[in-house]
Design a protein that fits this description.
The chain contains 8 helices and 9 strands. It is α/β, with parallel strands linked by helices and about 280 residues long.
């Protein structure tokens, strides 16, 4: 999801140990409100239908080690402008990554900066993006993306170029492209690598101590890296093919009388009840 999408959805989500956006390119952690680093007026408060223990207001800080890895890996430093996650009410004594999001004011997000045009962004990811736009005639979606970009087929005027991109005939050695719709991101990024990093940070074995819920082509590597995967819906032939080859590692939770929301709830219930095998 885009970083802005995560922020819009936060009031409706239970509190998590970590939040990830942009195909795994950015990681955020909840932080407690205290006198040293946080602004009460810029905090986030979940809606009251979530668990009682999750109702305490909190803020977010970005994992700067992971961010620096993305910057060095091809995302560069300039694409974050206009997409920073911290309140512009922060004082000069506070580190940017520990400042609070202001959910009550449009001044809080995005941070008041203009996005840097693609052709002025550093990093080989954006070199690839510039090539696609200037040399191949692609239309790219970069809104609220700092570490990846999207290529939607419906936005293109040259169908042969899009097919060539999907086939790998147009690419970059340091950028990985997903499919349908296409996502491009540094090879050090991606959902699998992001999950592996978080598992390592939490002292967990991704292959034996994790489960995931997913449905898209861009989720396949992550799904295969986890111990078990729940599928609340099938959105692609590739995912169906993966399911057929690895049936014992996947559980379908949807059916003729079970819609997407109920299927997601069924997956969560199975996980909470320990039925993750």
């Amino acid at each position: 999801a885009r970083t802005s999408t995560l922020l819009n959805r936060l009031p409706y989500l239970p509190k998590a140990d970590a939040y990830c956006t942009e195909a795994g390119g950015r990681i955020f952690y909840p932080i407690d409100i205290n006198d040293e680093c946080c602004h009460e007026e810029g905090s986030y408060t979940p809606l009251d239908y979530v668990a009682d223990g999750d109702l305490k207001s909190f803020g977010l800080k970005e994992d700067m080690v992971w961010r620096e890895r993305m910057e060095r890996g091809g995302a560069g430093t300039e694409a974050y402008a206009g997409n920073e996650v911290f309140s512009n009410r922060c004082s000069g004594d506070e580190s940017e990554e520990e400042c609070m999001i202001d959910y009550e004011s449009i001044e809080g997000f995005p941070f008041v900066q203009d996005e840097v045009p693609i052709d002025r962004r550093n990093g080989h990811l954006w070199d690839f993006a510039s090539h696609l736009v200037e040399e191949e005639g692609f239309v790219l979606d970069t809104k609220s993306y700092s570490t990846c970009f999207r290529v939607n087929e419906k936005h293109q005027t040259k169908s042969d170029k899009f097919k060539a991109l999907l086939a790998g005939d147009i690419g970059h050695p340091e950028a990985t492209s997903g499919r349908a719709p296409t996502l491009a991101y540094p090879i050090v990024s991606g959902k699998k690598n992001c999950c592996q990093y978080i598992a390592d940070e939490l002292g967990l074995d991704l292959a034996t101590e994790s489960v995931c819920i997913c449905d898209d082509d861009n989720d396949i590597e992550m799904a295969l890296a986890c111990s078990h995967t729940y599928i609340p819906s099938l959105t692609s032939k590739s995912m169906l093919g993966t399911l057929r080859k690895n049936g014992s590692d996947f559980t379908l939770t949807f059916g003729p009388d079970v819609g997407s929301t109920a299927a997601t709830e069924a997956a969560l219930n199975s996980i909470f009840n320990g039925n993750d095998r």
